[in-house]
């Protein structure tokens, strides 16, 4: 059996916002790839892998994935943090990649085999006004999508007021438009009314609230959009307030998807067991990798909850591959968020997931089926990249009085 001889972190994309983990073994040419990307804290994850996890794993049997996962999980005593789980997730994916290569099988075959011919996915349509949004929806329909996320611009779009029209206090904070919950509560149901008038019921829509609302207003929004039969409403309530999902479920039947920011099992366990949500949306790397997510999916299956693993525009092709292999093997799969990569980015990741129409297709090669051209990965970095100085805080919105809005 192969033993781990080294773990390397490869930073790529502009400013090194993608971190690809390479786990090497003592078997000639046998290695695995995983995703440990964190666009806001990339170097912190690298340090966890290099200083904490790699020394623990070098010399260990790569085949013992579950034991290695538990070793990493308890390695720092404090656990269930976003950065530690991302580091664990990257290594875990790479170990499954190695196991698939040793077996000569795609990872989804190791997880029980295919439950479907391909993986349905949804695209992201947007526009600064309803006219632009309708045009974008038409494009996605023409491409073959049957489920489409719709946003009036960025997150919170439809709820922003220009500063010259807002009632601002003296010496107001910030310098951009301000977010107003009541404006959002009016705009989004009106958006769905117009979309249904235009497209009928033949296309399914999702919408991402991105936690911009207070809990009671989130419930109001879910009730107001119920007549428009959403595929799901995403992240209506912030993780800090998930107890409100009980009240939401009692008052309306709009399907709920949540979990993009979840890293702690206590965040999703009760929501699933009490059947308060319809889709669990953790990111594979943020939950701790393939090993963790197959367990989440099993718990969800027992309670009639489906998966909708989160991707996001900043995510990389390796995490997408891990998500799609899980999607192929999970019976209670619901939908997969799609990523769009530039041609030069795809060129650096041979065997990347293929999209045709509204479906994703995994490589049939062993493991995750994806290979990284390290020279091309280096070329994707911006000029003068220095891994130790990159800092990219999340850009936050504010209300008129200056109060921060949860992202």
Automatic annotation (TrEMBL):
It comes from the Bacteria. PROSITE patterns: MR_MLE_1. Signal peptide: none annotated. Belongs to the mandelate racemase/muconate lactonizing enzyme family. GalD subfamily. It comes from Paenibacillus glycanilyticus. This is D-mannonate dehydratase CC0532. Residues 130-255 form the Mandelate racemase/muconate lactonizing enzyme C-terminal domain. Has no detectable activity with D-mannonate and with a panel of 70 other acid sugars (in vitro), in spite of the conservation of the residues that are expected to be important for catalytic activity and cofactor binding. May have evolved a divergent function. Keywords: Metal-binding.
């Amino acid at each position: 059996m192969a033993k781990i001889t080294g773990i390397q972190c490869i930073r790529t994309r502009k400013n090194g916002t993608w971190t690809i983990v390479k786990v090497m073994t003592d078997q000639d040419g046998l290695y695995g790839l995983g995703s440990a990307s964190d666009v806001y804290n990339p170097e912190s994850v690298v340090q966890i892998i290099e200083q904490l996890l790699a020394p623990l794993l070098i010399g260990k049997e790569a085949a013992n994935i579950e034991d290695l996962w538990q070793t990493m999980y308890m390695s720092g005593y404090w656990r269930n943090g976003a950065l530690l789980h991302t580091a664990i997730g990257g290594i875990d994916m790479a170990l499954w990649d190695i196991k698939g290569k040793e077996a000569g099988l795609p990872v989804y075959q190791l997880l029980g085999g295919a439950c479907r011919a391909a993986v349905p996915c949804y695209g992201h349509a947007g526009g600064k006004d309803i006219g632009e949004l309708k045009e974008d929806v038409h494009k996605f329909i023409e491409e073959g999508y049957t489920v489409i996320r719709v946003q009036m611009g960025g997150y919170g779009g439809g709820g922003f007021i220009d500063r010259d029209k807002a009632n601002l206090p003296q010496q107001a904070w910030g310098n951009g438009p301000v977010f107003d919950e009541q404006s959002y509560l009016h705009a989004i149901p009106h958006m769905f009314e117009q979309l249904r008038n235009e497209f009928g019921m033949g296309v399914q829509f999702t919408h991402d609230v991105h936690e911009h609302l207070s809990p009671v207003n989130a419930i109001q929004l879910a009730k107001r959009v119920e007549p428009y039969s959403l595929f799901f409403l995403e992240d209506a309530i912030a993780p800090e307030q998930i107890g409100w999902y009980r009240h939401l479920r009692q008052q309306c039947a709009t399907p709920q998807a949540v979990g993009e920011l979840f890293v702690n099992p206590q965040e999703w366990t009760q929501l699933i067991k009490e059947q308060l949500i319809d889709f669990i949306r953790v990111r594979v790397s943020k939950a701790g990798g393939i090993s963790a997510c197959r367990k989440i999916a099993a718990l969800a299956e027992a309670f009639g909850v489906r998966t909708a693993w989160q991707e996001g525009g900043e995510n990389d092709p390796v995490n997408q591959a891990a998500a799609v292999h899980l999607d192929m093997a999970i019976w209670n799969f619901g939908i997969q968020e799609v990523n769009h990569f530039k041609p030069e980015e795809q060129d650096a990741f041979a065997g990347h997931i293929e999209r045709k129409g509204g479906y994703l297709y995994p490589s049939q090669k062993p493991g995750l089926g994806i290979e990284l051209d390290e020279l091309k990965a280096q070329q994707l970095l911006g000029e003068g990249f220095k891994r130790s100085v990159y800092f990219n805080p999340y850009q936050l919105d504010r209300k008129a009085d200056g109060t921060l809005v949860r992202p």
